[in-house]
From TrEMBL:
PANTHER family, per the entry: THYMIDYLATE SYNTHASE (PTHR11548:SF9), THYMIDYLATE SYNTHASE 1 (PTHR11548)
Location in or out of the cell: Cytoplasm
UniProt: (6R)-5,10-methylene-5,6,7,8-tetrahydrofolate binding residues: 218, 312
Pfam family membership, one: Thymidylat_synt
Protein name: Thymidylate synthase
């Protein structure tokens, strides 16, 4: 994962301090690219433990076109919990304790962390048990899954992933193997406008490669997940299309380290990368749309310990 560690060093040495919508502040660079040869191993971070099960279940959630976190909560996947919870605590119906800036406060204030944990557990319990509550406060709006599988324009609904697979199979040399999650007409309705905004696939010598354009990149918390998620997507689409994997090319717009992640990044940079794991997919007669986490296996993952950091919501 030298490419990723080089990015961290580049931002620390050359980044500009900027303000952001969360009020946390970042050190940022604009325009950066990393390349991962997927033949050399699966690019899951080894300088800190990264939860592959969460990455895989989130990607399968996207591929099924889902936008409600009830499914993720049932899968014990908390990746999107804060975004749904934020919608709840900012609503007129919420009458509990003040949850302003809950991500940072829960790490810095033990008393608040205990209150926040109770409120979050109550929120998730209601999502699971109350259909109407889940419909109002579990849905994150027209985020990735909706755009990937049900892009709406006028009276037409476009399944971009299905069209992508058909295009790769029937016209592999096309330069139009593109999926976009950035829908200007629906951005305002999304809990979080897409950070990984558009990706393009490329077939050469029987190998499938993918380039992602990511407009906004939280380098410490988000980017390790994004790298692994899109590497997994390449493997899945390649399996579906009868191809081998090639490269994952990761192009970043605003690549930033939050100012309250600086010490965590420096700790990670002090660690020596380890051998990359291997990915196994048991597709059999299934479509990738029907896969479960049980069909995806990671072998030989031996990372350094996890490093905690607050999420900026």
């Amino acid at each position: 994962m030298k490419q990723y560690l080089d990015l961290c060093t580049h931002i620390l040495e050359n980044g500009t301090v900027k303000q952001d919508r969360t009020g946390t502040g970042t050190k940022s660079v604009f325009g950066y690219q990393m390349r991962y040869n997927l033949q050399e191993g699966f690019p899951l971070m080894t300088t800190k433990k990264t939860a592959f099960r969460l990455i895989a279940t989130e990607l399968l959630w996207f591929l099924k076109g889902n936008t409600n976190i009830r499914t993720l909560i049932e899968d014990r996947n908390p990746i999107w919990d804060e975004w749904g919870f934020e919608r709840w605590v900012k609503s007129d119906e919420y009458v509990g304790p003040d949850m302003t800036d809950f991500g940072r406060r829960s790490l810095e204030d033990e008393d608040f962390a205990a209150i926040y944990k109770v409120e979050m557990e109550n929120y998730k319990k209601q999502i699971i048990e109350d259909d109407q509550f889940a419909e109002r406060y579990g849905d994150l709006g027209p985020i990735y899954g909706k755009q990937w599988r049900s892009w709406t324009t006028g009276n037409e609904v476009i399944d971009q992933i299905d069209a992508l697979i058909k295009g790769i199979k029937t016209n592999p040399d096309s330069r139009r193997h593109i999926v976009t999650a950035w829908n200007p007409s629906e951005v305002k309705d999304m809990a979080l406008p897409p950070c990984h905004a558009m990706f393009q696939f490329y077939v050469a010598d029987g190998k499938l490669s993918c380039q992602l354009y990511q407009r906004s990149a939280d380098v410490f918390l988000g980017v390790p997940f994004n790298i692994a998620s899109y590497a997994l997507l390449v493997h899945l689409i390649a399996e579906e299309c009868g191809l081998k994997v090639g490269e994952f090319v990761h192009t970043l717009g605003d690549a930033h380290i939050y100012l309250n992640h600086m010490e965590q990044v420096k700790e990670q940079l002090s660690r020596t990368p380890r051998e990359l794991p291997t990915l196994r997919i048991n597709l059999q007669d299934k479509s990738i749309f029907d896969l479960t986490i049980a069909d995806i296996e990671l072998e030989g993952y031996d990372p350094h310990p996890k490093i905690k950091a607050p999420i900026a919501v």
